[in-house]
């Protein structure tokens, strides 16, 4: 008569272990990953571009489906080949990196190839959606895509025609793009086997 309760406990333990394996955090390799930004002038073809360093990132998945992810960007590393523009992007007119050294994105859903989540920049959080392609590479995952972000939603109004008139060729588009190529560290073999079952 005691066999049934013992069997039930073992079954619960095995089930819990499988659940933990499926939801095991997967670390994004900050050194192997790349983030790049591009801004756009309202007039002409001027489109400065540069990079931002990924500070850290992590995701979880159930089976083959990614169900959550969080990435943190080091805004103090905003880079451009022109030192003056680089300093301008880091000052109060743009990203004010002294007071807001990081920006974060928290994934809420990944439906098909559309990611939706909460982006926090300069202490302001807004919902954004963008396309992303997920593939398996080198015993890990690779996530590539490009998000268009309206900077004015985060209080960055510098030379925006939505707020200032008569800017001429000094006007800057509200939207800038953030391209990403995120590579995870290798996923533990045991966890991969449990997830595949």
TrEMBL record:
InterPro entries: Lipid/polyisoprenoid-bd_YceI, TTHA0802/YceI-like_sf
Domain of life: Bacteria
Pfam families (alphabetical): YceI
Protein name (Swiss-Prot/TrEMBL): Lipid/polyisoprenoid-binding YceI-like domain-containing protein
Organism from which the protein derives: Spirosoma pollinicola
UniProt keyword list: Signal
Residue stretches making up the Lipid/polyisoprenoid-binding YceI-like domain: 25-185
Signal peptide bounds: 1-21
């Amino acid at each position: 008569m005691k066999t049934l309760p013992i069997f039930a406990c073992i079954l619960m333990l095995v089930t819990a272990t499988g659940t933990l394996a499926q939801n095991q955090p997967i670390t994004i390799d900050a050194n192997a990953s790349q983030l790049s930004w591009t801004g756009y002038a309202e007039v002409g073809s001027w489109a400065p571009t540069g990079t931002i360093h990924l500070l850290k990132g992590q995701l979880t998945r159930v089976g083959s489906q990614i169900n959550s992810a969080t990435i943190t960007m080091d805004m103090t590393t905003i880079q451009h080949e022109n030192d003056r523009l680089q300093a301008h992007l880091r000052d109060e007119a743009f990203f004010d990196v002294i007071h807001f050294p990081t920006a974060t994105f928290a994934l809420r859903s990944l439906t098909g190839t559309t990611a939706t989540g909460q982006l926090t920049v300069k202490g302001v959080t807004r919902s954004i959606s963008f396309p992303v392609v997920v593939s398996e590479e080198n015993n890990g995952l690779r996530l590539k895509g490009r998000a268009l972000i309206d900077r004015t939603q985060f209080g960055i109004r510098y030379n925006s025609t939505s707020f200032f008139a008569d800017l001429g060729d000094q006007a800057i588009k509200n939207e800038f793009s953030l391209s990403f190529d995120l590579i995870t560290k290798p996923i533990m073999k045991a966890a991969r086997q449990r997830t595949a079952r």
